[in-house]
Amino acid sequence: MSDAKQHSIFSGKAVSPSRLADAVSDAIAAALLDGKIQPGDALPPEGEIAREFGVSRPIAREALRQLTSAGLVTTQQGKVARARALSGEPMDRIYGYAVRASIKSLMEANEMRRVLETGIAGLAAERRDARGLSEMREALDRMERALGQAGAFTDADLTFHHGMAMATGNAMIRIQIEGLRSIHREVSEIFTARNARTQKDWQATVQRHRAIYDAIAGGDATLAGQAVRLHYEATDIASLEIAADTGKHGQ
């Protein structure tokens, strides 16, 4: 990459002497998020980045490490760093640790999802992005075919909620839902495998998802939000069943 091209991509605020690595990583991240660098594109080597910003190679290396930790860059020994598509993967790892701590953490996670997805469903009903609606329909079909099959049902469940985020047409919302994937999987797997799960209960879960889809596809934001709240009320009841089964009341 030429010096001129580097300048056009990374130029911006002057780098402050303090927190140099943060300033460099912020500038590169801005170029990634603004689309000046596309997913899969190679970043300049450490030495070129250091020269561009007027910092040392260790500072440039630390900036790339920060971007790698944030999931914006992928690096391999002996190869150039490459840009990655923005996703919720870093958040997903953190939430995954948190939700496994206790039943209390599980219920708090479910509460967080209810708050978020009520608003997401409303926006999805207003926007109705075709890709998201298609993903939701596909997930419903898969759920119908997966009744009684915990793993396949959980995968379809995750796809449905991702589709709902996609239906908003908002990339930040899509990333947020991807960041909650570990929570969603943990909740879904535990609820699906609980002792009280019956065939009627499986079918009721599908119907709750279908009600959400119908409201979104019909463009009714109020009804979509209500359908999500009803769905999470049911999962809250299931949380109490799990607590009774495991003896982890309030833990």
From TrEMBL:
The keyword DNA-binding applies. It comes from Aureimonas frigidaquae. Residues 18-86 form the HTH gntR-type domain. PANTHER family: TRANSCRIPTIONAL REGULATOR, GNTR FAMILY, UXU OPERON TRANSCRIPTIONAL REGULATOR. Keywords: DNA-binding, Transcription, Transcription regulation. This is GntR family transcriptional regulator. InterPro entries: GntR_C (IPR011711), TF_FadR/GntR_C (IPR008920), Tscrpt_reg_HTH_GntR (IPR000524), WH-like_DNA-bd_sf (IPR036388), WH_DNA-bd_sf (IPR036390). GO terms for molecular function: DNA binding; DNA-binding transcription factor activity. It holds the Pfam family GntR. SMART domains: FCD, HTH_GNTR. CDD domains: WHTH_GntR. Gene3D superfamilies: GntR ligand-binding domain-like, Winged helix-like DNA-binding domain superfamily/Winged helix DNA-binding domain. The keyword Endoplasmic reticulum does not apply.
